[in-house]
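Box 3.1 A note on notation
Throughout this textbook, protein chains are presented in two layers. The first layer is the amino acid sequence; the second is a C-alpha cell string describing backbone geometry. Keep the layers aligned when reading.
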Amino acid sequence: MKVLVTGANGFIGSYVVASFLARGHDVRALVRPSADVRPRGWSPDVEVARADLRLSRGLHDACSSVDAVVHMAARIGGSESQQFESTVVGTERLIQAMLAAGTTRLVLASSYAVYDWSSITGELTEESPVVGQSILKRGPYTIAKVWQERLARRMATENGLDLRVLRPGFVWGRDHVWLSGIGQRWRGSLLVFGRSTLLPITHVENCAEAFVEATLGEAARNETFNVVDDDLVTSWRYAKEYLQGTGTQGRVTAVPYHSALAVSRLGAAVGMGLFGGSADLPDLFVPERFEAQFKPLRFPNERIRGLGWRQRWSFEQALERTYGPIGSSPRP
C-alpha cells in the first residue's frame, strides 16, 4: 500500500511514517514548504511532498496515486482563528484534493479532547458524548478538533469516502514527556488530582502502530477508535517517573480530585462575578477544562484491540525508550 501522511514531520506523524516503512509500505510524507526533514533521517524510500494545507496549491499532486491519506497535521498552539484555519480549513482543502485525485480512504487523527468529559461517568468509550453546548468553554484546540471531525464526517457521507477516525489519549515519548493531564506545578511541587486517578496515555510508538492497523484493516472502514495503551498508569506514578526521568527537582503531592474541582468551580464563580465571563481564566478555574484533563474515569481499549492492534511496548519498556540513552530509542 502507498500512503500519504500529513504532518509527517511532527511528533506523532514521524513515528507513523516509521511504522509504515517498517511494515514494507510506501510512504509519501507531506510537510510544510519550509520544513527541514533532515533530522528525521528518513531513507530515500520516503517521498517528500511539500504543501501548505491552508492553500490548495500542491495538494492535488500530493494526494494522487496513493491508496490512503493518514491525516496527522493539526495546529496545537496559537489563537482560536489560527487553529481553526489550520485544522478545519486545512482538512477541508485536503479532502477536496483527495476527491479530485480519486483517493477515497482517509484516516483522521482526532483526540480525546472532543469528548464531553463533564457528562461522562465511569468509562469513557467511543460511544461517550462529544462536547456540545459547552464547547466554547473548552478552548481553541477542542473547538478545532470537534469541527474537524464534523467536517470530515459530513464530507465523507456526501462523497462516499471511507473515513476512519482515531482518538488518542495523551501521547508521550522521547522529547514529549510533559502532559497537561499530569497535574499542576506549584511551588516546587507537582500537584496531581487524586492519587489513584488513571491517566489515559499511549506511548507514541504504540500509537503509531494503531494508525497503521486502522489504515490497513478493512474492518476499520467508517469506524471510530480510542487509542490508549493497556498499561494505564496513575497520574501519581507518571508524575514520579517524569520527575525522575527528567531530573526535575520537586515532589509529587496528591490533592483529592473533588476538592480540587470544588476550587475550580469557586474560581469560575468568582471570575464570573468580577468580570462577567469575559476573563480568560487559567484552565484550573474553568471546570469544563479541568474535568477534561483530570477527571477520574476508566479508559477501555477493546475496540482498537479488536482491530488487531497490540501494545508493542509496555509502560516499563516505554520508560526506557523515552528516558534512556538516545541510542536506546531509535528515532523515526
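The CA atoms of residues 240 and 257 lie 18 Å apart. The chain has a mean pLDDT of 92.
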